[in-house]
Design goal:
Blueprint (H helix, E strand, L loop, with lengths): L21 H14 L14 H5 L7 E4 L5 E5 L4 H12 L29
Antiparallel strand pairs: 1-2
């Protein structure tokens, strides 16, 4: 989920500014999706950052949601290898030979989420 532009105008990000409105935020999210060659759907939080607040409001959080909208992976940083492994497990979740075992405790988004590592 794209929540805000954390380094707007800073060194390395001179072409990005704080979002003027929701349409601008969507445009920037689409541009970054193309630049990073991201093939999955990216959600865009509203201007009040309501979802980001519900998820802990921490910088660089990474969440992977399962089909039921529950958190299957959460971490305070974006570790691509962990995310790739979680996505691979979720893709094969319907295959009984590859059961999904979340690496992080899962909770509904509507509750207070406190991600924790299981040490894997």
């Amino acid at each position: 989920m794209y929540v805000r532009e954390p380094h707007a105008g800073e060194r390395g990000f001179p072409g990005y500014e704080d979002h003027r409105d929701f349409e601008h935020k969507i445009k920037v999210a689409q541009e970054l999706q193309q630049l990073a060659n991201v093939a999955i759907t990216i959600g865009v939080d509203d201007m009040s950052q309501a979802q980001h607040a519900r998820l802990g409001n921490l910088p660089n959080m990474a969440y992977v949601m399962n089909r039921d909208g529950r958190v299957a992976y959460a971490n305070t940083w974006q570790f691509n290898e962990d995310i790739d492994a979680t996505l691979a497990r979720l893709v094969t979740a319907d295959d009984p030979a590859h059961p999904v075992t979340p690496t992080i405790g899962t909770r509904d988004l509507g509750t207070d989420i406190n991600p924790r590592s299981t040490g894997e």
